[in-house]
Amino acid sequence: MRLDNFTGPFDLLLGLISKRRLDVTEIALAEVTDEFIAYTTELKDQANLAEISQFLLVAATLLDLKTARLLPHEDGEEVLDLELLEARDLLFARLLQYKAYKSVSGYLAEAMAAGSIRAPRDVDLEPEFQDVLPPLELNIGPGELAGIFATVLQRDHTPPSVAVDHIHLPLVSVSEQRGHILSLLRAGDVDFQDLLETAENTLVVVARFLALLELFKVGLCDFDQPEPLGRLLIHRTEMNEDGVDLRTEGDWSGDEAEGEQT
Length: 262
Description:
Helices cover 55% and strands 5% of the residues. The protein is mainly α. The chain has two domains: 2-116, no CATH class; 174-259, Orthogonal Bundle (Arc Repressor Mutant, subunit A). The longest helix is centred in the middle third of the chain and has 39 residues, at 78-116.
């Protein structure tokens, strides 16, 4: 819908503000309210009620904002003030959004107008470029081509199998590594580096490290490092008599020992 060279309520509102060279602020809205309502009265003969209601909604919001600025406020009108602020902010947001779209549409219109006067070049290939590449010559006959095709068909097209053995490595029991470490401590001190280097794989290294932490926690072993960054020695502390089940030694139980695996 057009009204004196304006399309829609926001186009009219933006035009009224721009005519006065005002920024989009609440003061600017108050100054153009009366003129906006005057333009809206010209819509009384329009048949499209949906389009008229858009103008009336913006006009009602502007009138509420202007009235709120002119009339004194009472103490019980805080909720009404919040509603007016929300309506004002929504009006600002839609107006600024329309202004941005209108600016972009002007740029696109200029670009389309500039592009409409251009035409693609529609010519054949120039003669000097037609013989740049030599003509294609096949130095192979139909029989040789059939032999190559037969060779390809005779190849083994079975998809290669992917080994997954490394994914399903055997579980390593922490309780068994506790027993192994305690059995080594019966013969004397154990070098930490030697203990890890004799492990079969990384899982055993992790299990032995966890076993050492548990043995130290329950007081069955201790550590000694004579010099900084030197050898780390593991030695036994006071243990129960020999012959006990080393996998259940200390504060852990037999059920826990069976479930501790890494």
